[in-house]
Structures are given as structure tokens and as C-alpha cells.
Specification:
The structure holds two protein chains of two kinds. Chain A contains four helices and nine strands, in the order βββαβββββααβα. Chain A is of the alpha+beta class. Chain A has a six-stranded antiparallel β-sheet. The longest helix of chain A is centred in the last third of the chain and has 11 residues. By secondary structure, chain B is α+β, with helices and mostly antiparallel strands. Helices cover about 20% and strands about 35% of the residues of chain B. Chain B contains eight helices and 20 strands. A six-stranded mixed β-sheet of chain B has the order 11-12-13-10-4-14, sandwiched between helices. Chain B has a six-stranded antiparallel barrel with strand order 15-18-17-16-19-20. In chain B, strands 6-7-8-5-9 form a five-stranded antiparallel β-sheet. In chain B, β7 and β8 form a beta hairpin. Chain B is globular and about 60 Å long. Classes of the chains: A alpha+beta, B alpha+beta. At the A-B interface, β4 and β6 of A face α2 and α7 of B.
Chain lengths: ~130, ~375
């Protein structure tokens, strides 16, 4: 179960990588393992706006659909088009293959997210 | 995790099964992965632990007429060693359960029922005994069941069984067979749309049997398969799942399964009047198959629309591993149910275009 340092995490198993006022968002190794073979990723449109905790995407295995939630308020700048034809990339490398790139609307919300150490502790309790 | 364990629980763990609680039982949803397990059943063979299913013995002088009254199918003409698929309906024509009836003789039948409905079914059978001279025995606690399914199933089982499987026809069974010296009852039945067998044995011998079948089967590409692929396989094969396509509020006629409801059989059966009435008046709702015309995956419970008016809901939907497209079953208004018609499936907040197609998804495979 890999947990990368220098990323922010949520209890719903999303990760967030900050680059200035922008950030990349994806799902963690724990999440992709739980889901099994991912066969479909639903992507939002560029310029869509979402609030923290709002579902902006869905990742589906054969068996089930899982909503993906915004860790912070933001605007979609880019979506990872590769996931349309190759959704399994999220299984192969969930940290390399981001889902969306956003502009963070409220940077103070980053303080509410988990650090990698906190996420690791959370996994230890949860699993 | 809470739940009852089958006799194969430790085997599932050692095979790295991902365990879930299904109908109160701890069973693997998958081992290697849903897709490889699904494909194995279609191309070579898969083996499932289905010991969670309920088995009820019905014995006595009046077993045959009693079951003919309880079941929608024609029990009075069932042959010895034949297996019948049938429904038990409530007086409104809704389904109490769908099940298999194995006939040993006129005074001994075995019912194989859905795990989730075992208690309900047993009570239903007891409550409707009236003056029939029958007695019921729940054999589930002492019975383990394996399902060996796929084009290679016969070859694999023939290596170990003491009867000629070419003589065992579809929907027939043989009791008192020996599989690698282990006593069992075997039927040529299954829930995958492929050729296959269901093997009934005792809890003490099933681990040995499971391991032996896996060992022999490994030369043929046999994989252990879990609940996940069990559902995708049966769905592609147009087989209903109680709770999805069938329920106390859905009649077998609405589900397109009139073949197993013998409205013309002489004897009365529970729900007969209501079902005849429903058939003669015409159905309000029917089950249809559909495929998506745009990206997405339809799921159980999603709403179905025609030109922005809600006409029904999805009963089962998947990205089909064998057909590699998104398909589903939906229970919709009968007057909208024409092949080729365009409908919409509401997936989260999107209205996704879909087309009504033949429910027998594998027909032209």
C-alpha cells in the first residue's frame, strides 16, 4: 500500500498535489486496490466549478461506481483525457495518473486535509 | 467481518479471495479479478462455492400435488431425475422466490433456493401446507455446493466422476455418484449461460473435492471464481436475479419468464388467478434489454426516461466483459418497450442515450 509524501490526502482516499495556486487530484493506491479493475472514469468539463466535498468525477469497476469528491473548492483547468480510453491507468499508477487539474479557490482549505503521515495512520485504523 | 462461513472459507482465504458479506455469508467477490474469472467461465471453466444457497427437502405422500399448488411450473408432469426452474408466487402474482425443484420420486423432492430467501421460503412452505401430507427438512446446514461451469467443465469432471457425463442431460441430475471417491449428487445446471454442473455434497468432503477439481482443472485453465463474475455471467446470459429482475412486486410475466408459469395447468396454484388476469389484460410493465449509445455504465436503480418522462428503472446493468459494451435490463412501461426504440438512462446527473435491444445478449456471440 503506497502513500506518497508531499501530497495531501482525504478520508475518501483522494490525493492532492499543490503547484502554486493550482493542484492535481487523483485517487490513492488504497482506493484503486479496493475498486479492482477500473473500466470507466467519468470526467467533468473544463471550467466546471465544484465546492469542497462535491462529487466531480466517478470511477467505476465492473462491480461498482465510486464518486470522487473535491478536497477543496476549485475550478477545473484540465482533465486527463488518457483515462477515457485507458481507465486502467488508475490501477497501474494511481499517483502518476491524475484525474483533474484545478485552480484552488480557497487555499486555507488545505489545512483541513490530511498529511501523508495522517493518511497512513487513518489507513492503519480503517483497514 | 461478520457472517456465516461455508466449509470452504479457509480455502477462499488461501486463494486470496476478497471476502464480502453476501446474504449473511462470507464469500469471495473475486480472487484474481472479476474480468479474468468471468472470461475463464466463458472460455475454459470456473468453479464457484455456492454453498450459501438453501436446500429444502420436501417428502411425503402428497409431495407432488403440494408442490404443484405452491409452484407455477408443472410439477405433476415432472420426470424422475429432472430439474425444473419455477417460481413460488404470492396471491398477487409477485414472486416469493425463484428456485429449482429436483424430483427424486413422487414423494421426494429437493428445492434449491436463494440464500437470502431461505427463511422466508421455509415459512411460506410451512404456512401453505394445509392438509397436504408432507414434511419439510432444511438440509442447508449440512450441504455444501460447488458450481463447475464452462466449456471445459464436462472434460474436467469426467476425469473424476464414476458416471458417463454424456448421459447426463441439461436440467437432469444423478444422486449417489462418486467424484474421486467422494459421494455427491450432481446436476447439469448452472447460472452462467455455459455448460456446467452443480455438485451437492457434505461439509466434511467438500474441501477435498474443491482442491481435487482445481488440481485436475488447472490443466484446462480452470479458475476459482467469485460472486462478482457470478453476477456478470448470469446477467449476460439473461438469467434473472431475485431482488433485481424479480421480487414480491414483480410478476414473472413482467420479467418475460412466462414459460415457467403454466397458466394452463389443470391444478390451481398460488397466484394463478391474478397471473391469468394480468396476462389477459396485458402487462403494464415489461423487462427489456438495452445498450448505451454514449459513454457510461448503467447500474441497478438508475432511472430510465423516454423524452424526459420517467418510464422505469434499471434492474441490472454492467460494462459487459464478454461483449465489451455497456448493457442493462430495465423494467419499463409496456407501451414504451419496442426493440430499437431510443430511451435515456439517468447516470448521476447525465441523461445518457440508450437503445432497446434483445435481452438475450449472448445470442449472436
Amino acid at each position: 500500500m503506497s502513500v506518497l509524501k508531499d501530497l495531501y490526502y482525504t478520508k475518501d482516499h483522494e490525493w492532492l498535489r499543490v503547484e502554486g495556486d493550482e493542484a492535481y487530484i487523483g485517487i490513492t493506491d488504497f482506493a484503486q486496490e479496493q475498486l479492482g479493475d477500473i473500466v470507466y472514469v467519468e470526467l467533468p468539463e473544463v471550467d466546471d466549478e465544484f465546492d469542497k466535498d462535491e462529487a466531480f468525477s466517478a470511477v467505476e469497476s465492473v462491480k461498482a461506481a465510486s464518486d470522487i469528491y473535491m478536497p477543496v473548492d476549485g475550478v477545473i483547468l484540465e482533465v486527463n483525457e488518457e483515462l477515457v480510453d485507458a481507465p486502467e491507468l488508475l490501477n497501474t499508477d494511481p499517483y502518476e495518473n491524475w484525474i483533474v487539474k484545478i485552480e484552488i479557490r480557497d487555499k486555507s482549505q488545505l489545512d483541513e486535509l490530511l498529511t501523508s503521515a495522517e493518511y497512513e495512520d487513518y489507513l492503519a485504523e480503517e483497514v | 467481518m461478520e457472517g456465516k462461513k461455508t466449509a470452504l472459507y479457509e480455502e477462499h482465504l488461501s486463494l486470496k479471495g476478497k471476502m464480502v458479506n453476501y446474504a449473511g455469508w462470507l464469500l469471495p467477490v473475486q480472487y484474481e479479478g472479476l474480468i479474468p474469472e468471468h472470461n475463464a467461465v466463458r472460455e475454459t471453466a470456473g468453479i464457484f462455492d455456492v454453498s450459501h444457497m438453501g436446500t429444502i427437502l420436501v417428502k411425503g405422500k402428497d409431495a407432488r400435488p403440494y408442490l404443484d399448488y405452491i409452484m407455477t411450473n408443472d410439477i405433476s408432469n415432472q420426470r424422475q431425475n429432472q430439474v425444473l426452474y419455477t417460481f413460488m408466487c404470492n396471491p398477487d402474482g409477485g414472486v416469493v422466490d425463484d428456485l429449482l425443484v429436483y424430483k427424486y420420486n413422487d414423494e421426494k423432492f429437493l428445492l434449491v433456493v436463494n440464500a437470502a430467501n431461505l427463511e422466508k421460503d421455509y415459512r411460506w412452505l410451512e404456512d401453505h401446507r394445509a392438509n397436504y401430507q408432507v414434511y419439510l427438512e432444511d438440509k442447508s446446514p449440512e450441504t455444501s455446493i460447488l458450481a463447475l461451469q464452462g466449456p471445459k467443465a464436462e472434460e474436467i469432471l469426467q476425469k473424476l466422476i464414476d458416471i458417463d457425463l454424456k448421459e447426463l442431460k441439461f436440467f437432469n441430475f444423478r444422486d449417489g455418484v462418486k467424484i474421486d471417491k467422494i459421494e455427491a449428487m450432481v446436476s447439469r445446471t448452472g447460472y452462467t449461460g455455459e455448460d456446467g454442473f452443480e455438485i451437492f455434497t457434505n461439509n466434511e468432503d467438500v474441501v477435498k473435492l474443491w482442491r481435487k477439481l482445481l488440481e485436475v482443472g488447472s490443466h484446462y485453465g480452470l479458475k476459482p471464481a467469485g460472486l462478482g463474475s457470478r453476477d456478470t455471467l448470469r446477467f449476460e446470459a439473461a438469467l434473472p436475479l431475485y431482488g433485481n429482475e424479480l421480487s414480491e412486486d414483480i410478476s414473472p410475466l413482467e420479467a418475460g419468464l412466462k414459460f415457467f408459469v403454466k397458466l394452463k395447468k389443470e391444478s390451481n396454484f398460488i397466484g394463478k388467478d391474478r397471473l391469468i388476469d394480468q396476462w389477459e389484460k396485458g402487462l403494464d410493465r415489461v423487462l427489456v434489454g438495452f445498450e448505451l449509445l454514449e459513454r457510461g455504465i448503467p447500474r441497478e436503480g438508475y432511472e430510465v426516461y423516454k423524452e424526459d418522462k420517467k418510464i422505469g428503472h434499471v434492474t441490472t446493468g454492467y460494462m459487459s466483459p464478454t461483449l465489451n459494451k455497456s448493457i442493462g435490463n430495465a423494467l419499463i412501461q409496456a407501451d414504451q418497450a419496442e426493440l430499437g426504440e431510443e430511451i435515456q438512462v439517468k447516470i448521476r446527473n447525465r441523461m445518457v442515450k440508450a437503445k432497446i435491444i434483445d435481452k438475450n445478449f449472448l445470442k449472436n456471440r
